[in-house]
Design brief:
By secondary structure, the chain is mainly α. Helix content is 45%, strand content 0%. The protein has two helices and no strands. It is rod-shaped and about 65 Å long. The N and C termini lie far apart (64 Å). The relative contact order is 0.09.
């Protein structure tokens, strides 16, 4: 039936995703407050870049 086909397809997709960790979410990196793109500090790398 259509329902069982969709369920099998979903299960197959989930199993493929479990085996492909490299395609998952990007890992977080620690960014200092000064280097954050939204920082308005004078020492911000972004502030210096755009001046």
């Amino acid at each position: 039936s259509e329902l069982s086909r969709k369920m099998e397809e979903t299960i197959r997709h989930i199993k493929q995703q479990e085996g492909n960790d490299e395609r998952g979410l990007l890992s977080r990196h620690e960014i200092s407050h000064e280097d954050h793109p939204l920082s308005v500090g004078e020492t911000s790398v972004w502030n210096q870049f755009f001046q």
